[in-house]
Amino acid sequence: MKKVITLIVTFLFTVTLLPIVSPYQEAEASPQTDIVVLLDGLPLQFDVPPQIVDGRTLVPLRFFSEAFNCQVEWVNETRTVKIISPPRVMEVIGFYALGGDARTSSWTNLFGEPYPITAVGNTKMVSELALGWYTIDEQGNLLTRSPRTAWQRPPGWEDVLAAAQYYNLRTEMVVHEENRDGMLYAVLNDEQAVENLVGAIVLEAEHFHGVNINFEGLGLYAQGEEQQQIRDRFTHFIASLAPPLQDTGKTLTLTLHPPNNSFRGYDYLALGKLVDRIIIMAHDYGPKPEPLWQIVQAIEMALTYVPREKLVLALSVPEEPPENILSKVRAAKHFRLQGISLWRLGLLTEEMWDVLEQTIKTEK
Question: How far apart are CA 94 and CA 100, in angstroms?
Answer without folding.
Answer: 18
